[in-house]
Amino acid sequence: MNTELIDKIRHYVVSHISEFHEARVNNLNKLKLKKVLAHKNPYLFRAKDTETAESIVRTIG
Fold first, then answer.
1. What is the largest CA-CA distance in the chain?
2. Beta carbons of 36 and 60 less than 8 angstroms apart
3. For residue 55, pLDDT beyond 80
């Protein structure tokens, strides 16, 4: 790859990375455990021997 293109890509990423992370954090802040669990099969949690909210969140993430 030519260095000019790499520099343009690097500049774009550096200038937009905060927007990307901000959007991800905003989505996580809006996330509700009840809504996530509504889309998951509760029997699967039992089959995986999942007993705590922390372990459920870790398997989802």
1. 54
2. yes
3. no
Q: State yes or no: pLDDT of 57 exceeds 70.
A: yes
Within 13 Å and on the Cβ side, how many CA atoms surround 24?
7
Rounded CA-CA distance 43/38 in Å is 12
Closest CA to 59 of 46, 47, 38, 45: 45
Sign of CA dihedral 43, 47, 51, 57: negative
Written as one letter, the residue type at 40 is: K
Written as six digits, the tokens of 56 are 């459920």
**Predicted pLDDT of residue 61:** 62
Q: Give, in order, the Cα–Cα distances in Å from 43 to each of 39, 50, 51, 58, 60.
A: 12, 10, 12, 17, 15
